[in-house]
Structure formats: structure tokens, C-alpha cells
Design goal:
Blueprint (H helix, E strand, L loop, with lengths): L1 E2 L4 E3 L4 E3 L5 H31 L15 H17 L1 H11 L1 H42 L2 H12 L5 H28 L6 H20 L12 H11 L16 H5 L2 H30 L9 H28 L4 H22 L8 H15 L9 H5 L4 H26 L6 H25 L12 H29 L1
Antiparallel strand pairs: 1-2, 2-3
């Protein structure tokens, strides 16, 4: 056994125990804050556009724009048009150029576009705003694949789910901060432009910190201790000398798309996103039309589900990390348990929303909060599974599944618009909630049957490629022996 004050490696039990707090956690914290700012810049328009189109409830000293609802929908959807385009290639870019570079470009460019938004709207109207949001979507589209690639290099196997969940929880923080402060910002002396200026300035400050302290891998980091770097690389199997490490190999697209665990992962992401976007886009309308209580009229109620979601995510991280380090549960069992809790319990509360009466508005808020909060437990399940299946292609896998899942953000609202022709009809809403609940149930059922946390064989280079070098050496040695023999015979 080799021990020191920073980590210990017990070869008998094949466990690695790292420091409680290390430089890897600073990377995780910076990614968490960067992701929060990116989400704040993503949702700020949905808040600001209300004041931009009607400044009676905000500071009237700032411009008001007479945009139609059709124009408004084009503006709000322009972000996702750019966001979806770069999801799949982003994983390959992160592998080739490093996650540090892509993440700083994503936050910095999104911040610059946010700061330019008020000026460009005044100069070019809604068309300029659509262009800016499209460009923001392009640069933010690389975020999730980049984070997945960074975590595949920085997160020890024993801390993988906890660290990645912390990173993703930044999304809830960004939503909470934007929703909770939106009313104050729009009504302040800085008006609705402040909802763009504030996250934009903070994003540029974050980019400065990331430039100094961020790194694509522990080996490229100048500030990490040698002991912590050795512990991380030992856990991930990256502890070979640089010249002995395997070079990047081509993405095995055919094997990837014929892999049952990966296809199930894609399905699970899609079903989860269907429920998420049904809640995010339609619940306020349901509560307003059916229950007579508008959740958007109160910033605290609007942010409450995401506050509790963020709190539960952070509280469960130590538990998930302890379970993995202690090896009480193997990774596959752990993923399936967390995924089942996070996707099947919300099924009950989600379907129950369709059976409430108009005088049960408080219960509806409670069920909504429960549904959103408990669903965060799935972050310890399918959300981290791409790292399990193929850590060498974590960014590419995340890009594929996130691209597929974001298609649900387009389809789900269209289905609601087709089914719910009368927003006050409880029976039509019941269909929507039942469909969403069944989607969540079936997605997790497939994950239980076919899902796994085992590394897939296509994660590694083809065996022929790995054996080519020693085979060539044998051939060369044989040729040398033959030449020596011929020379000896010639001399004789």
C-alpha cells in the first residue's frame, strides 16, 4: 500500500480515495458558475421580452416594441435553431481542441452578444435580435458536449456522478437568479436592458477566471498538485507517459448507433426532455386557465421549483459520491436506482395535476414543485451515463443525445397545441399530463432493462490498431535475422 497525506491507493481492494477538496473541485465550481451564467443569458429574453413589448409594468423610460405574437415566437425560438446545429460536432471539437478553449469561447461570445442586444434591437429591430440569439445558440450549443469532455478528464470514477451533477445544477441556479431578479431589474432605473447587461458583464468576468484557472486535463493544469493529478489519472487509467498513451481514434459511428445501451440512453434523454419542456412551457398556462392562478405573476412561485431542484441536487451529491466510493452499489445498480426515483415518482405527481379542481391551486403548486424537484435525482442516473459507456467519446455522445432530446422541446409544445384546443378544458390537459407521464415511465423502463454503466468495447481503439506496432516489430526483426543469415552465408 502506498499512502501519503493527499491520497491512498489500496491495491488489494482496488480503490482510490482522493482528497476531500482538491483542484478538481475548483474546476467543477467554475464550470457550475459558467453554466449558471449561460442559462441566465438563455432565459433572460423570455423575461425581458414582456417588458420590451409592454413597459407599463416596468420602467417606462425605455423603448417599447409593437411585436406580434408570431414575431415573439420567432425571436424566442431563434436561440434553439442555432443551439441544435452544433451539438454533434461539438464533441469532436472538444476532443481535438480541448474543453478549456471551447468553454471560454462559449461564455465569452455569449456575454458579448448579450451586451450588444439592447443596442442592436434599437438599430435593427426584431431581425437583429433574432440574429444575435441565433449566434448565442451556436456558441452555447457546444457547452454540454464540452462539459462532458472536461468531466471525462477531471472527474475520478468514484466522484463522477456527483461532480457532473454539480456542473449541471448551474442551470437551475441561472434560472432561479434570472426569475427571482427579473421584476426588480426591469422596474429599476436601468430598465429591461439590465437583464442583458448584468449576466453579460458577469460572463466576461468568469471568462477571466477560467482563462487563469481552467484546464482541459489535469496534465495540462499548472496549479494542481502532483499527488492529486496522479490520483485522478490513476482512477481514469490516464497515468501512462504521454508518449505511451493511445492517440485519438475515429468515432465508431456504426458501433455506437448499434449499441443497445447507447440507444436506450438517447431514448431516456428524449422522454425526460419531453416532460421537462411540457412542464416549462405549459404549466403556467394550465394553472392560469384551469386553476385561475397565474404562476408567472409571482417571481417567487416561478422560481420555487428550481430552487428546490437545485437544493436537492447539491444535497444528494455527497450521498451519491459516498455510495460510489464505498462500492456498496455497483455503478449500474446505482444509476438505475437514482433514475427510477427521478423518473417514476414524478409520474404520479404529473398525472395527478390533470385531476385537480379549480379551487386546488395551492396543491397544484405543490405537485408542480414535487415533480420538478424529484426529477433532478435522475441527474445521478441517465444524465451521467454517457461518461460510463464511452469516456473517450463523452462529448460526442452528449452532443448526440442532447441534440435528439432538444428536438422534443419543439415537438412537445406542438402536441399540446394540437390536443389542447380549449385551455380551460381539464380533460384535454389530462391527456397531455398522461402522455408525459407515460413517456417518463417507458423511458426509465427501457433503461432498467437495457441500460448499463459498463464501458463499451467501442470506446477503445480497434485491437488490430493496437497490435499493429508489435507485429511490425516482429516482422522487422525477422527481416534483420534473414539478412544476417544471408550475409553469413555469403562470407562462407
Amino acid at each position: 500500500m502506498v499512502t501519503n497525506g493527499k491520497y491512498s491507493f489500496d491495491s488489494g481492494k482496488d480503490k482510490i480515495k482522493g482528497k476531500t477538496i482538491g483542484y478538481r473541485h475548483l474546476q467543477c465550481l467554475l464550470i457550475f458558475l459558467g453554466f449558471a451564467l449561460l442559462f441566465a443569458m438563455r432565459v433572460n429574453l423570455s423575461v425581458a421580452i414582456v417588458a420590451m413589448m409592454d413597459n407599463k409594468g416596468a420602467n417606462p423610460d425605455f423603448p417599447e416594441y409593437a411585436w406580434s405574437q408570431k414575431t415573439k415566437s420567432h425571436i424566442l425560438s431563434s436561440f434553439f435553431c442555432g443551439y441544435i446545429l452544433v451539438q454533434i460536432p461539438a464533441g469532436g471539437w472538444a476532443r481535438r481542441f480541448g474543453g478549456r478553449l471551447l468553454l471560454i469561447l462559449s461564455v465569452m461570445m455569449s456575454s458579448i452578444f448579450a451586451l450588444l442586444t439592447p443596442l442592436m434591437v434599437n438599430l435593427g429591430g426584431w431581425a437583429s435580435l433574432c440574429t444575435l440569439r441565433f449566434c448565442q445558440g451556436l456558441f452555447q450549443g457546444v457547452t454540454l458536449p464540452t462539459i462532458a469532455t472536461l468531466m471525462s478528464k477531471w472527474a475520478p470514477i468514484e466522484e463522477r456522478s456527483a461532480m457532473q451533477t454539480i456542473c449541471y445544477s448551474g442551470a437551475q441556479l441561472g434560472i432561479v437568479l434570472m426569475l427571482a431578479t427579473s421584476g426588480v431589474l426591469c422596474s429599476s432605473s436601468w430598465g429591461w436592458p439590465s437583464t442583458f447587461y448584468l449576466p453579460g458583464i458577469l460572463g466576461l468576468l468568469w471568462a477571466g477566471f477560467w482563462f487563469i484557472f481552467g484546464a482541459s486535463t489535469p496534465r495540462e493544469c499548472k496549479h494542481i498538485s502532483a499527488d492529486e493529478r496522479a490520483m485522478i489519472e490513476e482512477s481514469l487509467g490516464h497515468d501512462k507517459p504521454q508518449d505511451e498513451q493511445m492517440p485519438l481514434h475515429a468515432v465508431p459511428w456504426k458501433k455506437m448507433f448499434t449499441s443497445k445501451p447507447f440507444l436506450v440512453l438517447v431514448v431516456n434523454h428524449c422522454t425526460s426532455n419531453w416532460c421537462f419542456w411540457t412542464l416549462l412551457t405549459q404549466i403556467p398556462s394550465y394553472i392560469s386557465s384551469v386553476l385561475g392562478k397565474d404562476i408567472k405573476s409571482n417571481a417567487i412561485l416561478s422560481s420555487l421549483p428550481y430552487v428546490t431542484m437545485l437544493a436537492l441536487s447539491l444535497l444528494l451529491c455527497p450521498l451519491a459520491s459516498w455510495l460510489e466510493k464505498s462500492q456498496i452499489l455497483n455503478a449500474t445498480v446505482s444509476r438505475k436506482i437514482f433514475n427510477t426515483i427521478g423518473q417514476w415518482i414524478p409520474v404520479v405527481s404529473l398525472i395527478s395535476l390533470g385531476y385537480l379542481r379549480a379551487d386546488q391551486g395551492d396543491l397544484a403548486i405543490a405537485l408542480l414543485t414535487t415533480t420538478v424537484t424529484i426529477s433532478t435525482i435522475a441527474h445521478f442516473g441517465f444524465s451521467v451515463n454517457h461518461l460510463d459507456l464511452a469516456p473517450n467519446f463523452a462529448g460526442t455522445l452528449m452532443g448526440i443525445v442532447n441534440c435528439s432530446a432538444n428536438v422534443m422541446s419543439i415537438i412537445a409544445p406542438l402536441v399540446v397545441g394540437y390536443v389542447v384546443t380549449d385551455t380551460s378544458n381539464i380533460y384535454q390537459w389530462r391527456i397531455i399530463f398522461t402522455v408525459a407521464g407515460c413517456m417518463s415511465f417507458s423511458g426509465n423502463l427501457m433503461f432498467l432493462i437495457f441500460g448499463t454503466a459498463k464501458v463499451q468495447h467501442w470506446n477503445e481503439p480497434p485491437r488490430a490498431g493496437r497490435e499493429a506496432e508489435p507485429l511490425n516489430e516482429l516482422i522487422n526483426d525477422a527481416k534483420k535475422d534473414e539478412e544476417c543469415t544471408e550475409e553469413g552465408e555469403a562470407r562462407v
